[in-house]
Amino acid sequence: MFSIDNSQYLRSGFTLGKGSKLFQDIERDIIKIVFWDKRVTQSQLVAATKIPQQTVSRLLKGLTQSHVLRQTDEMIPNPKGKPGFGIELNPNYAYTFGVSILLDAIGVAVMDFAGNVIATKFSEMDDMSIAHALEATEALVKALSEECKLDDTRVLGMGVGISGFFSSMDGKMNTHHMLEEWSQVDIVDIISNHFKLPTWVVNDGTGAAAGEGVAGVGRQYKNFVYLFVSSAFGGGVVTNTEVLRGTYGNAGELGDMLPSKIYAHPNLELLKRILKKNGVKFSSIYNLHEEFDPDWPGVEEWIFKVQDSFDLVATCCSALLDAEAIILGGHIPKELAEMVIPRIDVYAQFRRGAKRPMPKIVVSGVQKHPVSIGAATIPLRELCL
Q1: Is the per-residue pLDDT at 37 higher than 90?
Q2: Which of 355, 324, 144, 130 is CA-nearest to residue 239?
Q3: Contacts with 328 (C-beta within 8 Å, 6 or more apart), sequence order
Q4: Does residue 17 carry a pLDDT above 50?
Q5: What SS3 class is residue 76?
């Protein structure tokens, strides 16, 4: 996950703390708890952070005066003492943009400071060259800014999700062959210079996993593996609510678990080919959520072909990571995911008549635009969480 120096492009609407940080570490500790719990009391913050009560009170006063936090009228019960007023993030304090650079489409999402998705826009494209993609992204960003009446001085930054893997520690990516012009270039530099915003870039599956942890069912789990089913197959890993990056930023490359000559990769291009052979056509994988029919001839064939692949990946993730959940997402239709999940067999040895605790396997809660929504969470995670 690579970014520019945040201090270069932070807008005048924000006051920096020490160095180039938006918040001091002690303030981030409080913001992080409020973000994940959504609403807390001062006494709960004291208990969770182990920071002295007077210090917490002083920090809350400052964060409230700067409109980062706000106090609600609701009183929250306290089992160990007096009830307290609720404290929550001010969603209007700041906004982020998330951009998905897919194989044949651009998506943009806007997220508020509390992690709520405000709006999304999406455009399928024939030309994914850098110049054309930047032009399309700029148009979508402008349209969203106008429709949502965003104050551009309150934009924290931009996250970008793109199909590929990082080839070294310099942030350059070996992208899918359909994104040839984006390969081995400084994507962060290109995007940040164009939009004059702090920018981060992640693999599309990693981005989707990050978004699932904030805006989907992944928020219910501190540790989960996200299976990204799209034109290709990949994924991401979230551990203790943090996105696992790995040495180069390539953690979660689940497709590499599956030698292609042995296992069929469970992607939607394979589904498209099988359906076409059976006389079924659909407009694009991005519209499958609306168009999918579980009775289409060829659906069961696809499930049969990819079942062993899902079994292997789920078993490896369960054994290696001991995750709470495995989440099936990406652009796979919810109905198709619900057909696949009951058939996934996660192997584990029996010992004294019992298996080790197994992860739940569930459908993603982010049904549309998972990459751009996920990318929008990256500035929040980097600057505030």
Answers
A1: yes
A2: 324
A3: 227, 229, 337, 340, 341, 361, 362, 363, 364
A4: no
A5: strand
- Residue 100 φ then ψ, to 5°: -110, 125
Are 199 and 160 within 8 A, CB to CB? yes
- What's phi and psi for 60, nearest 5 deg? -65, -40
- Delineate the domains of the chain, giving CATH numbers in brackets: 15-92 (1.10.10.10), 94-211+371-383 (3.30.420.40), 217-365 (3.30.420.40)
Of all residues in the chain, the percent with pLDDT exceeding 70 is: 94
8 A C-beta contact, residue 162 and residue 204 = yes
DSSP 8-state class, residue 108? E
How confident is the model at residue 2, as a pLDDT?
52
Tokens of 98: 């998330």
In angstroms, the first-to-last Cα distance of the chain is 15
- What are the DSSP calls for 261-279, one per residue? TTS----HHHHHHHHHHTT
What type of residue is 266?
P
Strands (E), 144-190: 155-162, 164-166, 173-175
| Residues 286-324: tens digit of each pLDDT | 999 999 999 999 999 999 999 999 999 999 999 999 999
> In sequence order, what are the residues at sequence separation of 6 or more whose Cβ sits closer than 8 angstroms to the Cβ of residue 37?
44
> Residue 1 — pLDDT band, cuts 50, 70, 90?
low
SS3 123: strand
Which parts of the chain fold into alpha helices (H)?
25-37, 42-49, 53-65, 130-147, 187-195, 204-215, 268-277, 288-291, 299-321, 334-340, 370-383
Total Cβ atoms within 10 A of residue 351: 8
Q: Per residue in 115-166, pLDDT tens?
A: 999 999 999 999 999 999 999 999 999 999 999 999 999 999 999 999 999 9
Question: Side chain identity at 82, as an amino acid letter?
Answer: K
Give the span between the Cα atoms of 311 and 291, in whole angstroms: 27
Q: How far is the C-alpha of 380 from the C-alpha of 188, rounded, in Å?
A: 17
Distance CA 3, CA 189 (A): 9
The pLDDT assigned to 31 comes to: 97
| 4-18, 106-120, 243-257: the lowest-pLDDT one | 4-18
